[in-house]
């Protein structure tokens, strides 16, 4: 499978602090990939390295077969919408489209015009007069009209209300289907990822905790509830993800492709948010020794 992004031992250091360290990752082309993790996990740093806004301190990263920002041809392959959906307040929508045409050799004017018309936006209106949702849609339009191979979105709907978020994501999915572009989307809101992503990466402390197609991940992860027991008694084909215990009961999240035959367990499937939270939990010293109780990550996803 062709990779649209490959990182090997990737790291970025600011003086003495590592914002990203020893990150190894391979994201396949042809997917809408969700990137999720707590604050400080290195998500924005990873995306900034992917678009060439930052240079790595260690390791390597390759995007669309080349070095990020390695010349005009490479820049044309990647579209980027930052968290603050940057637009120029004093420029009109039409000014933004002309600027996009000037800066991007693969610019597709018809895509931009069609999207602006479909959104019901006035091309003469200044960006500073647009709502937050409209500015996000304008930024997405500029990214798509580049005709990129990969569109990178860094929490583009973080500041939007639920209705604007839904409209943005709906338009994104329509555009992905229409223009056959790979997408890497960072978000803290798992419900947004569940709505649009078919591939998932959970990044915690620069480490890829889990990566794969969403459908496969949900099919192979289970919650086990039953009488309290030590987790070292689990079968070898059941990988322990997280565990919690009361005096009488154990609740485990495991990953396995084999059927769970132990009648003592009540087995339930996980939703995407439960799965993500299980991998975001930070193991205590006891957990590292015997898979016992885990401490929650510094931030939940909502």
From TrEMBL:
It holds the Pfam family ABC_tran. PROSITE patterns: ABC_TRANSPORTER_2. Keywords: ATP-binding, Nucleotide-binding, Transport. Residues 5-230 form the ABC transporter domain. One of its GO terms (molecular function) is ATP binding. Transmembrane segments: none annotated. It comes from the Bacteria. SMART domains: AAA. This is ABC transporter ATP-binding protein. It comes from Pedococcus bigeumensis.
């Amino acid at each position: 499978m062709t990779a649209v992004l490959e990182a090997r031992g990737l790291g970025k250091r600011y003086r003495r602090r590592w914002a990203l360290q020893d990150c190894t990752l391979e994201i396949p082309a042809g997917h809408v990939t969700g990137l999720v993790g707590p604050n400080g996990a290195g998500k924005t740093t990873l995306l900034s390295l992917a678009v060439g806004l930052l240079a790595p301190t260690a390791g390597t990263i390759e995007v669309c077969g080349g070095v990020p920002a390695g010349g005009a041809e490479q820049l044309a392959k990647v579209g980027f919408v930052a968290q603050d959906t940057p637009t120029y307040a004093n420029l009109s929508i039409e000014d933004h489209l002309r600027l996009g045409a000037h800066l991007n050799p693969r610019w597709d004017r018809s895509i931009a015009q069609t999207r602006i018309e479909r959104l019901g936006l006035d091309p003469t209106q200044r960006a500073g007069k647009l709502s937050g949702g409209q500015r996000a849609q304008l930024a997405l339009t500029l990214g798509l009209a580049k005709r990129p191979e990969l569109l990178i979105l860094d929490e583009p709907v973080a500041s939007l209300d639920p209705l604007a978020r839904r409209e943005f994501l709906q338009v994104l999915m329509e555009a992905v289907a229409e223009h056959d572009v790979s997408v890497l989307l960072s978000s803290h809101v798992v419900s947004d990822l569940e709505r649009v992503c078919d591939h998932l990466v959970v990044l915690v402390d620069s480490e890829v905790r889990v990566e794969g197609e969403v459908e496969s991940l949900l099919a192979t992860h289970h919650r086990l509830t039953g009488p309290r027991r030590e987790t070292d008694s689990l079968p070898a084909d059941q990988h322990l993800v997280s565990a919690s215990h009361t005096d009488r009961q154990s609740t485990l999240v495991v990953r396995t492709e084999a059927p769970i035959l132990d009648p003592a367990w009540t087995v339930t499937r996980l939703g995407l948010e439960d799965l993500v939270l299980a991998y975001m939990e930070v193991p205590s010293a006891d957990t590292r020794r015997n898979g016992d109780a885990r401490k929650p990550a510094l931030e939940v996803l909502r």
